[in-house]
Design a protein that fits this description.
1071 residues; four-stranded antiparallel β-sheet; 37 helices; 30 strands; membrane; VPS39/TGF_beta_rcpt-assoc_1; Vacuolar morphogenesis protein AvaB
Length: 1071
């Protein structure tokens, strides 16, 4: 039970005083008391300084009898009687009110309303129109003038006289106009202002809403209920026959209609035990009825609570939450029959907590605890929904950290739901409260939470807490021993289900009907009735979660952690750096800075010196690691996608779990994602060599998986790559070389010199293969690589026949060397030529190739002709050399590199060609070789056109018959005729081209206009000069001046020609 208010008597009539209190009015530090004798007493309320020391003894909740002797201890009296107006009225003073702005006091006595001076209490006027008045209501509001916009205070007095409501209006301090009258259908029993212009009138037939400006009367109807009046709804609330029964058996007694304003724009109507919430326009709200055990005597609202005074026979004041309608506190006040709350327009909304309750002989002033203490008390009693509702109604300025308190209480409620094994609801509430993951994870056993688990060590603190709460409850029982007959809400013992006292006192606990009514209407979605009303025996024990309960709890935890993971990744990268840097703290910053992700971090110390990035990284690691544990326990299939993506999982935990369960493939993927490559490669080597004690899948056996892993590593990790690629290279060289030869960016970016040195240490053939790939596929023109490849070729060839399987393999290796010597030009020719043995026939052709690269064509041809005696290769060598050398073409063409065999040129007076060199070797060989006529005549026959006649005939001996030279001369004559014919064709073509150019100059390019007519162009075009045409430079008309026309038909004066450069009119055209 909450201790929101404590009763302190401030006025007690002495025993010899036979008068009774009929009405009270409080404003400022004054309390006006109207007696049944017609006297008016004015008291001044004194603030008791020693009051805070008495509050702990007052925490006995609703014990009003103990509150009575409390004020006797202070030295200062609670209230001092300032004066008494004995002749204030001849009859009992039934009601009092003030209009402070008009400085008047209004009273109801002898069924008349009178107006008195607020300072002297002298009678100013007795309103004759109010004869027979039963009640009145006063309101004051600030109203702006619609024409000028100047604010003024508008006060209204509404008096109920039988069936009429009579209205008086004061604007600022003066009475405004005559009284207005509004007639209703029955006698008015109560009046309550809803707004400054609308008033609720309670009658026996029900309630109506009256607009005092338009005098419009609107019935306040309650929503229709099934089973009442044949299912017809919309009847007036509070009607005598609304429930189908009358009060005839009760001596024709009809309950008084009650009404009170609640928070802004809401009112509560009550008649008997029925209640209805409406808005300021009279529309019913969708809220259940207040579960009163009996009809209240009076209603009021003291921010933020709803007050209901029970009949004098019970003498109790009920304090309820207007949101949940639950009973929070019952204060015993003997014979109390009316209460008074200062008007909201006089004091602030939260200042109304100093309201008054009075009986015939005593007036109590209700002192309220601060809101922080009230919330703490609700939380201590486990009434989390009530605490959240109270926080929602309170203004932010009334609390130190409203947002933080709401969040903390929501987490406490979620923890209570978790203890009740409502895991899904608990996690949803944790998510809504943005609970720190550390706090949620600690609820789980060690298999999920690891070292954070508090489940195994939760017993000692609980026993200690239970002992403390048992002492408090024992004290509470002693203070509440006199209130067992009063209808009370559940005691704190019923709200703490996990304490030892809750278990021991469950069978002896008394549950009143009101509390049972509240619990019966609470839904099963985690409200107070479920958390606090749960029996102690039904509450789960504190043993560890096991079996199905653990799986259900883990499934709920997965959704919570998944949402946390998504939110955390908005602020931090996997490398631990924040995506948005935090601002630099400044000295002018008063409050401690907290980043937007602060709620993920459990604040145990001051936030002044917190490394937020490091803390967030710790939380991210905890979330991902715990989520991994949860997946492995409840949903193993979901663990793979988690660690294949960038994550913050702790490697040791994941490694241990996956290794235990034999999920080696997933373990390798995780280590790769965490960049723990050495560990992953060690495992792959262990599995690949089949050295593991455990049985592994075939996919991990052999070097295939290791090679695939190494191919994914970046070039920066070359040392690690070379360290672990050795065993695949020795096991399967072709597969191992894929690490360096694959068509991937990583393979192409590896440091080639380092790779080459490594491969050469393993096998020369592997290094040659790598160099061929680098040079031929990657087009690396580094001279060192080219020279090294030649050296490696020669190194193996010179090593002997033992290095090769057979002669065929050696021949292929030699052919690879010769091919490379032909295609490459970046090796050192002189060095290679010296390396080639001059007397070994295996290297003759290689020497010829190198000489060719050095430009020594004659020496190369000598090797082909005299050493190899391969005339076909000699001729082919000449063809390749001739085609790669620029040759003079016909006079009509310019020089160009020949890509085909040019046959149309005149070789007279040109230098001897490569064919001439070969022919000289055939016909005039050096000593001791003899002339070789057959290949010489074959060369003259095939390539006579490429051999100059003057030089060639000098080589032919005079004794050679002319018939043998027939083919040579035919080729020469045919070549000369071809050159002449080509010149003729070219001359004719140039003539045609000239004619076309002349036609274009004279007639234009043959363009047509939009109508298909030919547009004259060139020198034949015309330009129209009229009065509208201007010079593009000086913008003057042409008149009879000389003009100049540009090719684009723009026209300028001849004198403006020099200044028209860049200023021509490009918009004018042919006309």
């Amino acid at each position: 039970m909450l201790s929101a208010f404590t009763a302190r008597p401030i006025v007690e009539l002495k025993q010899r005083d036979k008068s009774k209190i009929e009405s009270i009015l409080a404003y400022g530090d004054r309390v006006l008391v109207g007696l049944n004798t017609g006297s008016l007493r004015i008291y001044r309320v004194n603030e008791i300084i020693e009051e805070p020391e008495a509050e702990p003894a007052q925490n006995g909740h609703e014990n009003g009898e103990e509150a009575t002797p409390e004020p006797t201890t202070p030295k200062v009296k609670p209230a001092d009687l300032l004066r008494e107006e004995e002749k204030f009225s001849r009859r009992p003073i039934q009601q009092l009110a003030i209009i402070k702005e008009a400085n008047i006091l209004i009273s109801l006595s002898d069924n008349h309303v009178s107006i008195h001076d607020l300072q002297t209490y002298a009678l100013q006027e007795k309103l004759d129109k109010t004869r027979g008045a039963t009640t009145f209501a006063v309101t004051s509001n600030i109203v702006k003038d619609p024409s000028t916009g100047i604010p003024s205070i508008m006060s209204r007095l509404a008096v109920a006289v039988k069936r009429k409501i009579i209205l008086w209006t004061w604007q600022d301090m003066e009475l405004n106009g005559d009284a207005a009258e509004i007639t209703l259908i029955a006698s008015v029993k109560s009046l309550t202002w809803a707004t400054g212009t609308k008033i609720v009138a309670g009658m026996d037939p029900g309630f109506v809403m009256v607009d005092v400006e338009s005098q419009e009367v609107q019935d306040i109807n309650r929503p229709g209920a099934l089973g009442e009046a044949g299912g017809q709804g919309g009847t007036r609330f509070g009607a005598v026959s609304s429930s189908g029964m009358g009060y005839m058996g009760m001596g024709s007694w009809v309950p008084k209609p009650l009404a009170t304003r609640l928070n802004e724009g809401e009112l509560l109507l009550a008649k008997d035990v029925n209640s209805l919430f409406i808005d300021k326009d009279g529309n019913p709200a969708d809220k259940r009825q207040v579960p009163w055990p009996s009809a209240p005597e009076a209603l009021a609202y003291s921010y933020p609570y709803m007050l209901a005074l029970q009949p004098p026979s019970k003498g109790g004041l009920e304090v309820r939450n207007p949101d949940t309608l639950n009973l929070l506190q019952t204060i015993a006040l003997p014979n109390a029959n009316f209460l008074h709350v200062p008007q909201p327009n006089i004091s602030l909304a939260h200042a109304g907590k100093g309201f008054l309750v009075a009986s015939d002989r005593c007036i109590w002033r209700m002192g309220a605890q601060n809101y922080e203490s009230q919330i703490d008390e609700l939380v201590a009693n486990g009434r989390y929904d009530e605490a959240l509702s109270l926080l929602g109604m309170l203004e932010d300025t009334l609390l130190h950290d409203k947002e933080g308190r709401v969040r903390e209480i929501m987490m406490l409620k979620a923890q209570a739901l978790f203890d009740l094994r409502k895991y899904r609801e608990a996690m949803d509430l944790f998510t809504e409260a943005k609970a720190p993951p550390v706090r949620v994870i600690a609820l789980y056993p060690r298999s999920i939470a690891g070292n954070l688990s508090a489940a195994e060590v939760a017993q000692p603190p609980e026993i200690q807490t239970a002992t403390e709460e048992t002492q408090e409850e024992t004290k509470t029982e002693g203070e509440n021993s006199n209130e067992e007959t009063q209808p009370t809400a559940p005691t704190p013992q019923s709200t703490i289900s996990r304490t030892m006292m809750g278990r021991l006192t469950r069978g002896h606990k008394k549950v009143d009907s009101d509390a049972a009514s509240v619990r019966s209407q609470v839904k099963d979605d985690g409200h107070d009735g479920i958390i606090n009303g749960k029996s102690a025996d039904a509450a789960p024990s504190d043993k560890n979660l096991e079996a199905k309960d653990l799986k259900f709890a883990v499934h709920a935890l997965q959704s919570f952690l998944a949402q946390c993971r998504v939110q955390i990744k908005r602020y931090i990268d996997t490398d631990g750096s924040l995506k948005d840097p935090l601002p630099t703290p400044s000295d002018s910053q008063q409050d401690e800075y907290r980043p937007p992700f602060y709620y993920f971090i459990e604040e145990k110390e001051s936030a002044e010196h917190v490394d937020w990035a490091a803390k967030l990284l710790e939380v991210a690691q905890l979330v991902d690691t715990t989520l991994f544990r949860a997946y492995m326990l409840a949903s193993p299939s979901l663990a793979g996608p988690l660690f294949r993506l960038p994550n913050f999982c702790e490697p040791d935990v994941v490694n241990e779990k996956l290794y235990e369960t034999g999920r080696y493939v997933d373990l390798i993927d995780f280590l790769h994602g965490k960049k723990l490559h050495r560990h992953a490669l060690e495992l792959l080597e262990k599995f690949g060599k089949n050295e593991a004690d455990e049985e592994v899948t075939p996919a991990l056996q052999g070097p295939q998986r290791t090679v695939g892993y190494l191919q994914q590593l970046p070039p920066e990790m070359i040392d690690l790559i070379l360290e672990f690629v050795e065993w695949p290279l020795r096991t399967d060289p072709d597969l191992g070389m894929e690490v360096f030869l694959a068509d991937t960016e990583n393979a192409e970016s590896l440091p080639r010199q380092q790779v080459l040195d490594f491969l050469q240490q393993i096998d020369l053939k592997l290094s040659v293969r790598y160099l061929e790939h680098v040079i031929e596929e990657l087009n690396d023109q580094t001279p060192d690589f080219h020279q090294r490849l030649v050296d490696l070729f020669l190194e193996r060839l010179k090593a002997g026949h033992d290095e090769f399987e057979n002669d065929e393999a050696r021949a292929k290796w030699r052919e690879r060397l010769q091919t490379f010597l032909k295609t490459s030009a970046n090796y050192n020719k002189v060095r290679v030529f010296k390396q080639l043995p001059p007397d070994d026939s295996d290297y003759f052709e290689a020497r010829a190739i190198v000489l060719s690269k050095m430009g020594q064509h004659k020496q190369a041809l000598q090797i082909y002709v005299f050493q190899l005696k391969d005339y076909a290769k000699a001729e082919e060598y000449c063809n390749q050399t001739y085609m790669s050398t620029p040759q003079p073409l016909s006079p009509t063409k310019s020089f160009r590199p020949s890509s085909t065999i040019p046959s149309t040129f005149d070789p007279e007076d040109t230098e001897p060609s490569i064919y001439h060199t070969l022919l000289s070797l055939y016909l005039n060989p050096p000593h001791p070789h003899q002339p070789n006529w057959p290949p010489a005549l074959d060369l003259l026959s095939k390539h006579g056109a490429r051999l100059p006649a003057a030089n060639t005939l000098d080589l032919v001996p005079p004794t050679l018959p002319v018939k043998d030279l027939e083919s040579y001369f035919r080729g020469r004559i045919r070549n000369a005729n071809t050159v002449m014919n080509e010149e003729r064709v070219v001359a004719r073509l140039l003539g045609v081209e000239k004619a076309g150019i002349e036609a274009a100059v004279l007639l234009g390019d043959g363009k047509t206009d939009a109508h298909g007519r030919r547009i004259p162009g060139g020198l034949n075009r015309r330009v129209v000069i009229d009065e509208d045409r201007h010079c593009a430079v000086c913008h003057k008309r042409f008149g009879g001046s000389a003009i100049r026309v540009y090719p684009d038909n723009s026209v300028v004066h001849s004198g403006c020609l020099r200044g028209s450069i860049g200023k021509k009119n490009t918009t004018s055209g042919w006309r």
